[in-house]
Amino acid sequence: MSEPSRSESVALVQALMRQLDVRPEDLAGGVRSLSLGDFARASVLPALTAGQRRAWGTYINITLEGLAGLCACSCENCLAHMNGLGLYTPCECVRAGQCDCPSGQLDASVVAVTSCLEACPVLGERELSEITKAELTRVALWAQMRATKRTLVRNQKRAAAGRALFAHDGRSAVEHLRAFLSALYGFAMEDRTTGVTRNLALEIPRYARPEVQKRSYEPGRLEELWSALYTSGSNDVTLDETIVWFVLETAGRRGAPVQLRVGDLLVASLRVRLHEKKNKVDEQPISEALMSALLAMALTRGDVLASNPEGLAPEEITLEDVRTRRVTLRTDQPVFYYRRTRRDPRAPASGARVPHPLTTRRFNSLWDRLKRELPWLEEIHGRPHDLRKTVGTSVEREFGHATARAFLRHSAGGVTGTYVAAGPEETARAHGWLTGTESEEVATEEW
Ligand SMILES: [Zn+2]
Ligand SMILES: [Zn+2]
Ligand SMILES: [Zn+2]
């Protein structure tokens, strides 16, 4: 049989296409014209959970509509157009169409701009398949700029009142935006007609997480776990972060964050007292950063102030204030709280709302969410308790069995029963290594 000629081949293909109902334009990549906004509204927003919508609302709007009328300048005049909630009106420059703001203020912005007339890109109208990583990054920088500008506004008021300043750098704005975009690109990749083949959101540059994150899991795992705290649709990232951080540093058992009381925070010596099985109590060193986070959680969400003669606002109280007893705390109060309050259990009829302490239920739901996001967590770290094991394994690899046992507070006399007991000093060194607060020299020394 001879090879078909070129014209015969073309005719054959055309006949086949007619039979299969394929149009020539379908073969040209099969990509339809589709804006990011249309895709988001039709295929992404309806699939989000209520928690995701709540957490990402601001960032969904920024993605679809940009930040019309917001400038990136933080001179006094421009700051006066924003309030502490992040709501704003266009500054004089934007209204007049001309900007004479001091260049120093414009240069200091996280977004590279030269005048108030440059605005956040609007991605809603852009062709989804043509959006670049650079465009996404620019929107992320604008979201971060808005967050830092809002902090500046809040700090102006606080400074005027002689109060401690906030130091937010807007990183959680970037994380939230990234999380939403990542979900959007995930849906887009599943639909071949969008022409999207890569999750560009994951390529938006991000900030390094605290040092403690880096050492206890295999490389990359901890970063993923930390990132999942943001992407799994949490309605309270601060709470989830603090729980995971606490468990990682202290290798505490599941009940530990729930049982932790303010009196267990030994602020002066940077240790926490953990109530464990069979009424055993143990002390564990923690980093100053974690101690601050725990204290902030208790102060801003709980009702833990016993005396506060200078009338400091809960969010401005520092470790130093507690150490020097400028304020004193109610030692019997829990440390961890939900953001939402609850009806007063002692006077349900009064309608009064009181702080809602953490329950183990949150621990379970947090883990379920993380496992949905991270298949490997499902495989190896299926239970909250395993996080503790992971920490123990890392400590053991680096410091030996005795220290790991002391760190995890297993009672001596296990299967072989002849372990050398590790003292508090070794435990402290293991902790320093785990959190990166110990010098490298000490951490790698053999002992
Ligand atoms: Zn300005
Ligand atoms: Zn301006
Ligand atoms: Zn200006």
Which key features would you list for this structure?
binds zinc ion; 48% helix; mainly alpha; two-stranded antiparallel sheet; hpI Integrase, Chain A; 20 helices
Describe the protein.
There is one protein chain. The protein has helices spanning 6-20, 24-27, 36-44, 50-65, 76-79, 92-96, 103-107, 133-160, 171-190, 221-231, 237-250, 256-259, 288-301, 319-323, 360-373, 375-380, 384-399, 401-408, 424-435, 440-444, and strands spanning 265-266, 271-275, 281-285, 305-307, 328-329, 337-343, 353-357. It starts with 5 loop residues before the first helix and ends with a helix. It has 3 domains: 1-30, no CATH class; 36-214, no CATH class; 221-444, hpI Integrase, Chain A (Orthogonal Bundle). Strand 1 and strand 2 form a beta hairpin. Helix 17 (384-399) packs antiparallel against helix 18 (401-408) and helix 18 (401-408) crosses helix 19 (424-435). With 447 residues, the protein is mainly alpha-helical. Bound molecules: zinc ion (ZN) (3 copies). Residues 71, 73, 78, 91, 93, 101, 116 line the site of one zinc ion. The site of one zinc ion (ZN) has 7 residues, from helix 5.
User: Any idea what the shape is?
Assistant: globular
Total number of β-strand segments? 7
Q: Uncertain spans, ≥5 residues at pLDDT below 50?
A: 209-217, 410-421, 438-447
Proportion in β-strands: 5-15%
Query: Looking at CATH, which topology of the largest domain would you report?
Result: hpI Integrase, Chain A
Question: Strand order within the widest sheet?
Answer: 1-2-3
Measured between the Cα atoms of the first and last residue, the distance is 81 Å
**Distinct small molecules bound, one entry per kind:** zinc ion
Q: What is the CATH-assigned architecture of the largest domain?
A: Orthogonal Bundle
Succession of helices and strands: HHHHHHHHHHHHEEEHEHEEEHHHHHH
Binned, the helix content reads 40-55%
CA-based gyration radius = 27 Å
Number of helices: 20
